[in-house]
Design goal:
single chain; alpha+beta; Penicillin V Acylase, Chain A; 7-stranded antiparallel β-sheet; 14 strands; 17% helix; 38% strand
Amino acid sequence: MCLILVAWRAHPDYPMVVAANRDEFFCRPTAGAAWWPDGELLAGRDLQDGGTWMGITATGRFAALTNYRDPLRQREAAVSRGGLAADFLHSDAQPLPWLGAHAANAAQYNGFNLIAAAGDQLAWASNVTGDCTALPPGVYGLSNHLLDSPWPKLVAARSALAAALVALPEQRPLFDLLRDDSMHPDDQLPRTGVSLEWERLLSSAFVRAPGYGTRSSTVLLVYRDGSVVFDEQTWLEGGTPGARVRHRFRQAANASS
């Protein structure tokens, strides 16, 4: 996943609002968002290495993952990062201590960011810097660098999310910001070790590139009464709409675990 926006306790009626795009090669086998066989986890699934890029449990535990873009740091033998999000979601630990323990295991994984929530705590960690911190109420963004890095697409998307909160429960502004395919000027682009052509293609919130791009856009709303709305729009190569799924449930009583 390459764009995660989280509004944490920034709206009186929605303790958590998430808008996220997952960017990936179209040849990588993937299952869309659904309840896993244990009935406890709602998430997409990476069918190549297992795990997930984003999910929520029946008790309201949440996790989402991005990779850290740096071709020089990539190792073919590294453990799949998707298992991290699934492992947190299947645990009963609080986010900060869990993330702190796993961010320290940098040698096992290629670079990652992981943001996780349970009960009244939201936390973020990266194994690139070893940072691990609890996050106060606010609007946050992750792409393929560090939390709230001033990449043009992330700055624009965070601003759009803050504006979209005013329109809730209308979801269209959230999906609109995720569908923004405008690229940013060269002089504003980060330099992450890929070619300038790829920096341009990856500079938009919604990515369209040869064999690669945004494969799903997800809006997650957690209501004050514990109700959860999870909507996922999948995309085919070239940006053509694929399947759309909607899930609605109410958190189980032990959501504070």
